[in-house]
Amino acid sequence: MTTQLLLRYDHFDRDAFDAEAEDRAAAGLTQLQLWREGNGAHWALFDVNDTDRARAWVEKERDLGRGPSAHHLLETL
């Protein structure tokens, strides 16, 4: 089984998202996919190699006011 992190961004800034790639990598996240929903929301899917670091990264991003509007840690079967 692998763990993945699905993020939803209601307000998305591509330049800011790209600039944070190093921080995500340090949190053990590897970007797999990025989608744009019809209403302008964006979804990002990441492979997770350390669940605790991934959770800490999401919390830090929310505390800084730039985090995703929703997140889901998922496990493949």
How does this model look, in words?
The protein has 77 residues and is an alpha+beta fold. The chain has a single domain (3-75), classed as Alpha-Beta Plaits, CATH 3.30.70. The protein has three helices and four strands. It has a four-stranded antiparallel sheet with strand order 2-3-1-4. The chain is globular, with a radius of gyration of 12 Å.
Tag the structure with descriptive keywords.
single chain, 77 residues, alpha+beta, Alpha-Beta Plaits, four-stranded antiparallel β-sheet, 4 strands
Topology, please?
Blueprint: E1 3-9, H1 14-19, H2 21-26, E2 29-36, E3 42-48, H3 51-63, E4 70-75
Antiparallel strand pairs: 1-3, 1-4, 2-3
Total number of beta strands: 4
Give the domain tally: 1
Mean pLDDT: 95
* Outline: globular
Radius of gyration: 12 Å
Number of helices: 3
Task: Return the structural class.
Answer: alpha+beta
What's the arrangement of strands in the largest beta sheet? 2-3-1-4
The major pleated sheet works out as:
4 strands, antiparallel
